[in-house]
Amino acid sequence: MSRKGQGSLEYLFMVAAALIIIFAVVSYISGSGSQATQQGDIALLQSQAELAKSKLSARDLWNDEYCFYILSESYSKDKVGSKYGIGIKDKGSNGKCDKSDEVIYYLDYSGSEYREEVKALYGDGKYNLKTLKELYEQCLAGDENACKVIITLDESLWIPQ
């Protein structure tokens, strides 16, 4: 009798082991699928950013050395008439992006698809006072927010100063 019970127990362990292996494989495949989807999403943003850069270059609005910064809501309302404002500056004499550099353009990005995501980046040193080239390189390195900023630049109303 004990042999029969022992066989049942071994069978139960084999079924449990098989279920664990199946669960592990399904989890791995599901993880790979979501990772592939995420990589597809960033690839789409990168291609949109590349197109945006090309369109801005064609309009003579892209310069690798221009500095980008997001305006505060109150300052933006004063300069562009909406709470969604971006400043584009020329690098100063020190060759670095600085708050005191001359503003070349103000941008109203109230009509941009990613306006809320870009507005949320206000105060984030990872994006403010970066050159357009640096933002583009961040985008190519897989930074979704940098890609969204570049796309937003193309969708914005550029106001020369």
What order do the helices and strands come in, and which of them pair?
Layout: H1 2-58, E1 67-70, H2 73-80, E2 85-89, E3 103-108, H3 115-119, E4 130-131, H4 132-140, H5 144-155, E5 157-160
Antiparallel strand pairs: 1-2, 1-4, 2-3, 3-5
Summarize the structure.
This protein is α+β, with helices and mostly antiparallel strands.
Account of the 3D structure:
There is one protein chain. The chain is an alpha+beta fold and 161 residues long. The protein has five helices and five strands, in the order αβαββαβααβ. It has a five-stranded antiparallel beta sheet, sandwiched between helices. Helix 1 packs parallel to helix 5 and helix 4 crosses helix 5. The longest helix is centred in the N-terminal third of the chain and has 57 residues. The protein is elongated, with a radius of gyration of 26 Å. The mean pLDDT is 87.
Index terms:
single chain; 161 residues; alpha+beta; 5 strands; elongated
**What are the segments in which pLDDT stays under 50 over at least 5 consecutive residues?**
none
The string of secondary-structure elements, in order, is HEHEEHEHHE
**How many strands, which pairing sense, and closed or not: the largest β-sheet?**
5 strands, antiparallel
**Widest sheet: strand ordering:** 4-1-2-3-5
Distance between the termini: 94 Å
Tally of DSSP helical segments: 5
How much strand content do the residues show? 5-15%
List how many beta strands DSSP finds: 5
Helix content: 55-70%
Rg from C-alpha positions? 26 Å
